[in-house]
């Protein structure tokens, strides 16, 4: 192969994500699988919760200063993607795009799977060294992979608020047992 051809091909690979090879770091592989399982369960529950609210209920807020049902989900989308960019240098799905403040049910239902797919790609491509590195989080030092659980816990918090919104609208939320 000619040097010029090689350099052109190599330059084309520079924009591709770094993917850890399975088996290269068993601890990182185990953590990745655990994270993927947790985020798949989160997606299933989030979509089921968002689906239960009728479209008209997406503008509901229980007090004037509270977020609407739609704003709860919009906040989860923007915060999760923004933190993946800040903490793990992942692309921001919403760079140059503004999600409407008053998203419709259809918009939320389209964006939730997109955001969760983005999280899965991040989990699969974040280098093992970055997953296992110690980072500062508030006053604590934690392994980088725990930041992905912090993001999931944030979604759990807002999803729990959405369950309250459902009840306030007279809707009995689906029950969830186990994973």
TrEMBL record:
Pfam families: DinB_2. InterPro entries: DinB-like, DinB/YfiT-like. It comes from the Bacteria. Residues 43-162 form the DinB-like domain. This is DinB family protein.
């Amino acid at each position: 192969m000619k040097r010029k051809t090689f350099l052109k091909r190599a330059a084309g690979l520079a924009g591709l994500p770094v993917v850890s090879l399975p088996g290269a770091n068993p601890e990182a592989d185990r953590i990745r699988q655990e994270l993927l399982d947790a985020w798949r369960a989160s997606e299933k529950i989030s979509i089921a919760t968002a689906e239960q609210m009728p479209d008209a209920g997406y503008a509901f807020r229980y007090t004037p200063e509270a977020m609407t049902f739609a704003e709860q989900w919009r906040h989860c989308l923007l915060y999760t993607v923004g933190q993946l960019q800040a903490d793990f240098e992942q692309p921001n799905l919403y760079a140059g795009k503004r999600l409407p403040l008053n998203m419709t049910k259809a918009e939320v239902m389209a964006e939730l799977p997109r955001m969760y797919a983005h999280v899965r790609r991040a989990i699969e491509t974040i280098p093992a060294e970055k997953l296992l590195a110690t980072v500062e989080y508030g006053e604590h030092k934690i392994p980088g992979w725990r930041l992905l659980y912090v993001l999931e816990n944030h979604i759990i918090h807002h999803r729990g608020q959405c369950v309250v919104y459902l009840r306030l609208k007279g809707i009995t939320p689906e029950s969830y047992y186990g994973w």
